[in-house]
Amino acid sequence: MAHRQDQQRRASIHDVASRAGVSAATVSKVMAGVTTVKPDNAQRVFDAIEQLGYRVDPLASDMRRAKRRIIGAIMPEFESEFFGQMVTQLESLAEQRGYTLVAASSRESEARETEILARMHDWRVAGVVLAPVRNEHGPAAAFMKANGMTGVLIDRVLSDDAFDTVSADSASASAEVARELIGKGHRHILVVGLGEQAATVRARLDGFRTTALQLAPDTRVDVVLAETDVDPLRAQLRDYFAKGERPTAVYSLFLKGTLVALSEFRRRGWHCPNDISLVGFDDAEWMQATWPAIAAVVQPVRQIAGHAMEALFARIEGGEGPPTARLEPCQVLMRESVGSPGFADNGVATAHDHRG
Amino acid sequence: MAHRQDQQRRASIHDVASRAGVSAATVSKVMAGVTTVKPDNAQRVFDAIEQLGYRVDPLASDMRRAKRRIIGAIMPEFESEFFGQMVTQLESLAEQRGYTLVAASSRESEARETEILARMHDWRVAGVVLAPVRNEHGPAAAFMKANGMTGVLIDRVLSDDAFDTVSADSASASAEVARELIGKGHRHILVVGLGEQAATVRARLDGFRTTALQLAPDTRVDVVLAETDVDPLRAQLRDYFAKGERPTAVYSLFLKGTLVALSEFRRRGWHCPNDISLVGFDDAEWMQATWPAIAAVVQPVRQIAGHAMEALFARIEGGEGPPTARLEPCQVLMRESVGSPGFADNGVATAHDHRG
DNA sequence: GTGAAAGCGCTAACAT
DNA sequence: ATGTTAGCGCTTTCAC
Predict the structure, then answer these.
(1) According to the model, what pLDDT value does residue B8 have?
(2) Whole-number Å distance between alpha carbons of B350 and B328
(3) Domain containing B17: what range?
(4) Are B276 and B265 in contact (CB under 8 A)?
(5) Which of B299, B323, B347 is the last residue of a domain?
(6) Is the Cβ pair B7, A148 closer than 8 Å?
(7) How far apart are alpha carbons A46 and A27 in whole angstroms?
(8) Given CB atoms, is A60 within the 8 Å cutoff of chain B?
(9) CATH assignment of the domain containing A52
(10) Which nucleotide is at minimal CA–C1' distance from A54?
(11) How many domains are there within chain B?
(12) Confidence class for position B349, pLDDT limits 50, 70, 90
């Protein structure tokens, strides 16, 4: 076979029109499902479409329409299961409504986030699903406001005065984690997180601390929060343990923190749950394959994506009213990495678990 | 602040033209960097652009040009680190060339793959980077050929008679894994994989088996290959072990297989590397945080993405010549999950490793 | 019921 | 050196 790819022109609406013996306008009407077209004309149009393999050019179509059927999605990264699933969901929902999703990664940079947004504005997207790097008060949201863009904010947000928001109910989930850990007898717990993501990190931390102290006022909750990146967090954590601190449990407020905590345990030769317990915000597939399986807070990706798209399309279609702020409930999966302090070997190998 | 988003019309090229006192064509020329424009006119155009905050509408621009500056990317999934990184890379490379990347997930379905491709064809994308669900002989590649589309095939492909291909050098990497395992004394090794992805799975299997048998002809290489999905593989693996088979090492040909193997080990209470060794094709961040750290073949994502885009743009710009088939070398990271059979506790906790 | 005409925002020939 | 003209492929009044 030849590698030369013959680039013959695709059939246009005019080709269909002339073959069917009608005008382009009529073809357009037939395709739009207008019922006032004479049946045999409609039939000839359908035949011509079939024979020519005609398909509308969405670009040209959008060009003429007021709004373009493109949705932009901006995620901080694509590498994690959470955002991967999110993009998959969003794409599928956009497609269902006849829209094309253009996804871009801000790679955890607010500067890039705004650049991407500007490019999407150039494309005159109908709407944007933005998962901001930090929170709802960043430059990206400001850009959207300034340019009258339609959008929904998800994940690292709480609520906004201009845009609908949808995120996991971090506070409630963290409260439940607190209940579990306190219930198992933990009274010295370390919380690790990344401070920059203010919106959700604060909610998670507060939700956890408040409940823990309420249930057991003598509980000691230590906090190791790094400002921006993962490496400083690793260093701070190392310092913390080097000082001789020996909490009986660690609650990580985000996925990478869980990984950092785990590798610090490795370094020190500590095993979960005998030497220390671990729970992380954000679940991942591997967490139930390892030994011990890692306890985690599962974020409701489908619900977040679903409600985000619902809210977005409501606005695109002209929906009025004050911005809504949704919080979707999470599921807390207690696995073998959590035990009771002082009791050796309460983690037993079991068949891998299944989510409800 | 009002939630009502004012959707004022954006400045068009004509707005700029009239403000600068020139024609739209001149504005277009200025923006294209044509040097034959009178300096003071050019300056007034720049001023007008600045004042109006004008930016070209890429849709309208593409409409008029022959080729559209859109690249389509189709991945089997977005949930894994590998494809997540791949999309990030591709997006960044497309952007560098002034193209927009539209990414879609085929969700491991060849039917969906073709549908997406048809939609991308409707968009008249300049080119497509396709990571096929199965291999280069699927319906998607056929569709691209039939419609004269420009594209590059990556990942689960070896070589094609119509399209350039870029993938990891599965065979060499697998040979190296064989060398390592044989070198450590393993003589009964189980290989697990998913058969449908014929192209790469065969290369990995053959590369491994050939080298293993060459180095130690008495080696027993068992193979558990499921046809389509992960669950049957889990079942087959369970049967295999239930029969009393006791290989000293397992080599998984893909990420999910590594996860399945790990959870089977869990179920049976086997620990790596004392009870059994494990190496997986495809690395993931968590693999160096667990205890033991899991040995893995690291695919060169950046190289694959880079060469794929290079090849694609060469074709887009009219490059001729027979299709090329690139194989990018992998890195094999031996970690604690691999030991020597019969030697207990040769896995020692070490600081987390760093990739080169 | 249907088609002619206008035009979305832009660029590439072709004049001037 | 610049403007005029003519579309890209489609949809949408608005006449007929």
Answers:
(1) 63
(2) 30
(3) 13-66
(4) yes
(5) B299
(6) yes
(7) 9
(8) yes
(9) 1.10.260.40
(10) D9
(11) 2
(12) very low
